[in-house]
UniProtKB/TrEMBL annotation:
The lineage of its organism: Bacteria, Bacillati, Bacillota, Bacilli, Bacillales. Contains an active site 4-methylidene-imidazol-5-one (MIO), which is formed autocatalytically by cyclization and dehydration of residues Ala-Ser-Gly. This is Histidine ammonia-lyase. There is a cross-link at residues 142-144 (5-imidazolinone (Ala-Gly)). PROSITE patterns: PAL_HISTIDASE (PS00488). It comes from Robertmurraya beringensis.
Amino acid sequence: MKVVLTGQSLTLAQVKDVCYGFATVEIEEASMRKVEESRYSVEEIVSRKKTIYGITTGFGKFSDVMIAETDVNDLQLNLIRSHACGVGDPFPEIVSRAMVLLRLNALLKGFSGVRVEIIKQLQTLLNERIHPVVPQQGSLGASGDLAPLSHLALVLIGEGQVHFEGGIYEANLVLKEKGIQPISLKAKEGLALINGTQAMTAQGVINWIESMRLFYQSEMIAAMTFEGLEGIIDAFHPAIHEARGYVQQTEVAARMCELLKESKLITNQGEKRVQDAYSLRCIPQVHGATLQALDYVKEKLEIEMNAATDNPLIFNGGQMVISGGNFHGQPIAFAMDFMKIAMAELANISERRIERLVNPGLNDLPPFLSPQPGLQSGAMIMQYCAASLVSENKTLAHPASVDSIPSSANQEDHVSMGTIASRHAYMIIQNVRRVLAIECICALQAVQYRGIEKMAPVTLAFYKEVRKIVPSIDSDRVYSKDIEEMAAWLKKRDIR
């Protein structure tokens, strides 16, 4: 499997192939020619001693400080070292891999002025599965993800640390082992490597991939809960959803009907009750709205993945070199904040279904699904755990994009905080997965009480598969292990 990069056409499906499937990365020849032409323009600027930001001047508030021709290479090295001040735990390795891929793709657009050597070094890191260790905290999300991308750039010059073959090592040792020569940065290359939105976008891409996997899993789990509570299938009739007009809502209702087809545990309107609670009846409306948000996020990510986000940008063979603000992460900041809210709500409605599964006042199942109510607590505290997770999500869902703080002596006086939004979205997704794991464990027990032979063929197959991960509750045990094992299984498994 291989993915050919052009700088123009990278898709989320291809990112998934590279990051999860370790597809080999190749470079389109036409894109490489654009890189060479752009590099020639930079060398002309240096030789003619033109005043161009970041090439022959300092950075940020130092943009008025002229740099001698003899110092332009040192300027780039100093930039990387001084800006590599990220702190905290590193991004997950898969996010680091995505970061390298997206930075490579952006440079292939031919607006950044780097040498072919930079392109090939990034390509080598991907194909050799050498991934920079990048601290998560320290980016304002404007002027690009300066601190995170500086840690990425360190690896190209043989400094910093890398993930490699399951461990973390000094970059120079791994490069030497693989016979890879560290690069000496030339004019503009340091700036081109770090002035971009690839940290927030890389995390955002992984967020989206994991969110879509969780989204379809949530439908399957909700369908099993629906059976456990003998839900009223009429609420999913296509006429209701077509009358409203949201495509995603209609699609969710149709999938729920398909999942529950031939089930003997579902009911009809008036058979046992007239209406279900909203957490059952409104699954298409709520889940569908989450899917709408994820579709919006996908659109923004695929634009940003193929965007030139550094500064300055070089056009028309060097005839135009323009300083602008494409490094500003506001579009991704908004998208990640939207994702946070949408995914948090998927957990909110799941937790309400958990409550309906365990509360003896809301169903005719054994109280808290306990095998011996009173002596054994059953799933009582699992609902507490879910409630705690959804409450934490409400705090994390506070929008990061509404905040800003000036930097670089007020030269950079409005920033996006998009990387914070992206990181918090990832944290929410992990919490959502655990809430869904709890719902799944409870739904397994509920349908077991009802009689699994009455389940729909699709949900029964899922039940049998999941029972290999979490056995039936026949006595109280340490449920933490069950929740974490179920969440780990969901993280790896594609429903579709």
